Amino acid sequence: MLSIDGLGASYVDDPALELPALRGLAARGARARRMRVIFPSVTWPCHTSLVTGVSPARHGILGNMVFDRHGGEPLEHFGDRNEVGIGAETLWDRLRARGERTASICWPKTRGVDAIPDNIPEFYEQELFERYASRPLWTELAQAGLPVDRYGPWSAAHALGPMQDWLTLEAARHVLATRPPRLLLLHFLTLDSFQHDYGIGSPEARWALREMDALLGRLLDSLAALGRLETTTLLVFGDHGFAGVETRHHLNQMVRELGLLELDAKGAHTKRQAWVAGNGGAAYVYALDGAPATAVARMRERFGALPGVEVIGPEQYPGLGLPAPAPGSHVPDLILAADDGIFFTGHATAEAAAAAPVYVAAHGHRPELAPLGAAFLMAGPGVRTGAALGEIGLLSVAPTVARLLGIELPAAEAAPLDEALEHAPR
Ligand SMILES: [Zn+2]
Question: How close is the Cα of 192 to the center of ligand 1, in Å?
Fold first, then answer.
């Protein structure tokens, strides 16, 4: 399973882009017209659904950013900086139960997962790599001369993303050559970073995608050299597409204006009765301990007055695949969903907003918004050559992989993509 972060459905057919590896796979396998992702259409919940087949209501990873009411602080899933695990059964759990190996390089939400014997989670801090990457693998990569001591810095800076992705691929090639797993998970980041920074279809994004395609080609070459290409099924997909950004709303500034948040000169909060966790085209609004009874209504009115912003109350959460509010949870009191062109941040001051990188494209919006649709293709043993799928759902990916592996994911919320599979009931 190769996730090319931010690979929107429209890139694969762009005639001005040379993508020999991706198109070669598409030609000998199956592809979807578009993959509808989940809400919010951000990286950490999407990747968790890709390996569980369940929505955030079940797996508990509700956003890149949430507020942890129990801990009383904002919580970033982003960068795997916390101990919160996946609350649902994963593909790697089922494989381990059968005594089979999973390897994972740069896949979100794998910190501390001992069911993955060869595991380098997706981090930004070198210290976390050193602490949580599987020790034998890490040592072997260093001994092979790979600069694993730079994984953190290369992951933390968008401009160095091509080196991060190269290192991810090299780690995968090492694992394939030494301890070939039953399931390999890989995640490349540069296309996502360059779309945020330079725009959808920008020269930088297009360069990035060609680089990702070249890495995929190198992976295919490695499999061929190991004699494994004909026996390996490949799934390549994005976790979401992108929408352009024209208007930015710094929502915690508005919370301050409502008198529900106060900061000192250094930006530390001196009063926090409400907080908004920005997730790009979505935002989570929390009334916190000590908030006045009117806080939610006032925020609903304030945010609902913004053009192109939909305010969603808890009665609609189940339909979005999100859990009902519960004491001490990460579940917000309100959710904001943005139209195309609108972007939310959690910046609480103009200074903080000015100091942050300016994204010209983003995601997180409702998955029904067309440009948020991701690419999906698969090829190899078990896959019907030439199968043209229409729009598929992201929750179908994990049960499809499970079927290919001959395992079950009983909790999966969608059926496998039987029309793309050989020997499957149709
Ligand atoms: Zn992503």
Answer: 6
Residues with CB under 5 A from ligand 1 (ion): 5, 43, 192, 239
Question: Which parts of the chain sit beneath pLDDT 50?
Answer: 426
Q: Write the pLDDT tens digit of every residue in 373-423.
A: 999 999 999 999 999 999 999 999 999 999 999 999 999 999 999 999 997
- State in Å: Cα 29 to ligand 1 middle: 24
Number of domains composing the chain: 2
Q: For the purposes of burial, counting CB atoms within 10 Å of the CB of 125, is it exposed (0-12), middle (13-18) or buried (19 or more)?
A: middle
Q: pTM for the complete prediction?
A: 0.97
| 251 and 237 share one domain | no
User: Cα of 6 to ligand 1 centre, how many Å?
Assistant: 5
Q: What is the DSSP string of 378-424?
A: EESTTB-TT-EEEEEEGGGHHHHHHHHHT---TT-SS---GGGBTTS
What's the CA-to-centroid distance between 61 and ligand 1, angstroms? 14
Alpha-carbon span 304 to 309, nearest angstrom: 6
pLDDT tens per residue across span 222-259: 999 999 999 999 999 999 999 999 999 999 999 999 99
The answer to whether residues 235 and 253 belong to one domain is no
Cα 289 to averaged position of ligand 1 atoms, centre (Å): 32
In a domain, 176, yes or no: yes
Residue of 236, 196, 199, 240 lying closest to 217 (CA atoms): 236
Distance 46 CA to ligand 1 centre (A): 8
C-alpha of residue 215 to centroid of ligand 1, in Å: 18
The answer as to whether 65 is a domain residue is no
Report the alpha-carbon distance of residue 146 to residue 129 in Å, rounded.
14
Distance of CA 187 from the midpoint of ligand 1 (Å): 9
Residues 251 and 238 in one domain: no
Q: Estimate the crossing angle of helix 135-143 against helix 161-178, to 10 degrees.
A: 100
3-class DSSP state for residue 183?
A: strand
Å from CA of 156 to ligand 1 middle: 15
pLDDT of 426: 45
